[in-house]
Design goal:
By secondary structure, the protein is α/β, with parallel strands linked by helices. About 30% of the residues lie in helices and about 20% in strands. The longest helix is centred in the middle third of the chain and has 15 residues, at about 125-135. The two termini are about 35 Å apart. The chain binds S-adenosyl-L-homocysteine and iron/sulfur cluster.
Length: about 325
């Protein structure tokens, strides 16, 4: 709930500052139970307890990787489970959160796709993942060393209202207090929703999963793109209202012998050359049911070298491969 929702949830005869107290207690002090919110009179707490629930998802399992990555399987109030990943790194920690239980987008290289979509998450469940992981790892004291990526399970742009609401809650200086610059959303390229995202006053940075250099290959790997064409996607990217400090990110999953040739790299440059952007290459993280192989490091390096001549280009190091926490590996109950 945002502050305006809390005002609605409280009895109308209460003064407005009670909603603000509740809001501060939940998002600033990270209270996880109404009982802890002692700034509110007991009577109000009892009344609230009959209609509302203050709480976080609960832990089903936590997997620890040898590289420090932690994958959390969290249980939601209806018993469904969702995955959240913490990637600690030198001077910053990144939390990768989910936006849906499963995913309706049927990308052929992604294990989450094998689950299909069970449901979208509420804004509370999206924020709840961040607060849970922050609490478990003592993270939110310094919001400047903390990044959020909406790159877990699900397609965030198919749950845009809740993703935006969660972003407003996470960035509100009265509450969690993160900077918008530290939150990034990744999409498979739902074109009308990219336009809608661009109109939002408070919004995460935008990353787009390109994953192929031609329309044909993209349609083969990401069937949803039969509807959302590459040419139109590039138009939407050109028209996207970047903020002064912002660049677009393009992600490209490299599949051995499929989309990883030098010619592909040159076509990527051709597609993106005129955009204010950077490229993140991800060598395929393999998994059961995924019919592709990981390219050799030399191939990845050669692909990067071609792009780098024109566009900043990085290789995303896989995190938590041994616990199925890396990109495209989130599919609960595998251990
Ligand atoms: N649904 C969103 C965000 C989650 S996926 C999206 O697709 O953008 C996050 C990133 O992981 C995407 O760039 C996706 O292309 C990549 N990915 C999916 N499966 C992968 C795999 N098996 N290996 C490496 N990257 C993968
Ligand atoms: Fe969904 Fe992203 Fe996986 Fe595609 S890559 S199936 S959009 S989570």
């Amino acid at each position: 709930m945002e502050l305006s929702d809390l005002r609605q949830a409280l009895p109308p005869d209460l003064p407005a500052f009670r909603a603000a107290q509740l809001y501060h207690a939940i998002y600033r002090d990270k209270a996880t139970d109404l009982v802890q919110i002692t700034t509110l009179p007991a009577k109000i707490r009892t009344e609230l307890a009959s209609t509302t629930e203050v709480g976080l998802p609960t832990l089903q399992t936590r997997y620890e990787s040898t590289d420090g990555t932690r994958r959390y399987l969290l249980t939601l109030h209806d018993g469904r489970t969702v995955e959240t990943v913490l990637m600690p790194e030198g001077d910053r920690d990144t939390v990768c959160i989910s936006s849906q239980v499963g995913c309706p987008v049927d990308c052929k290289f992604c294990m989450t796709a094998l689950m299909g979509l069970e449901r979208s998450l509420t804004a509370g469940e999206i924020v709840g993942q961040v607060l849970y992981i922050a609490r478990d790892n003592n993270l939110l004291q310094d919001t400047k060393r903390f990044n959020i990526v909406m790159m877990g399970m699900g397609e965030p742009l198919l749950n845009l209202p809740n993703v935006l609401k969660a972003t407003r809650i996470l960035t509100d200086p009265e509450g969690v207090g993160m900077s918008e610059r530290r939150i990034t959303l990744s999409t498979s390229g739902i074109i009308p929703k990219i336009e809608e995202l661009g109109q939002a006053e408070v919004r995460p940075k935008l990353a787009i999963s390109l994953n192929a250099s031609t329309e044909e290959m993209r349609q083969e790997l990401m069937p949803i793109t039969r509807k959302w064409h590459l040419k139109d996607l590039m138009e939407a990217c050109k028209a996207y209202p970047l903020r002064p400090w912002e660049k677009l990110t393009f992600e490209y999953v490299l599949l051995h012998g499929v989309n990883d040739t030098d010619a592909d790299a040159r076509r990527v440059v051709g597609l993106l050359g005129n955009l204010n952007c950077k490229v993140n290459l991800i060598a395929l993280n393999p998994g059961p049911g995924i019919p592709y192989e990981t390219p050799l490091p030399e191939r990845v390096a050669s692909f990067q070298a071609i792009i780098k001549r024109s566009i900043p280009c990085f290789i995303r190091r896989p995190r938590g491969l041994d616990i199925y926490a890396a990109c495209g590996q989130l599919k609960r109950n595998l251990s």
